[in-house]
Amino acid sequence: MKRMSHLLVCCALAVLAAGATASYVQAQLGSGRALLIYKEGVTPEQENKDRAACNEWAIQQSGFDPSAIFAAQQAGVRTRTIFEVAGAMDIATGGADPRWGSGAFGGATTSADKRRLAELYNAYLRAGALCLEGRGYAVAR
Length: 141
Known about the structure:
With 141 residues, this protein is mainly α. The chain has helices spanning 2-18, 44-62, 66-74, 82-93, 106-134, and strands spanning 24-29, 32-37, 138-140.
């Protein structure tokens, strides 16, 4: 996830530095590929403003901020899921929830947690693409 946002930023900066009038950057979107094509005649400052505004809008729409997770990890904060916290509480209280047996539900929750995170990230990417399209940029998926 964090690699995706860094890849987009790095590629966009490289294209801007090359001075291309119509540029494109390939980025992975879910299991497919997306091609972002920036409109001509836009100054680098305006493009950065549009990208920042669309990033904020995508965060508001999806409830997911990929930069927050990355910033926490860079600061040395170990990010944990609610399931890891619940597991630690089970150990502290002397056992797992008796309704689920000892660890029988653990694999399913981890998988569900990963799926939910992937869904949030994909919603963030879709919202960002919609915002850019609304501002006149072409986003081919």
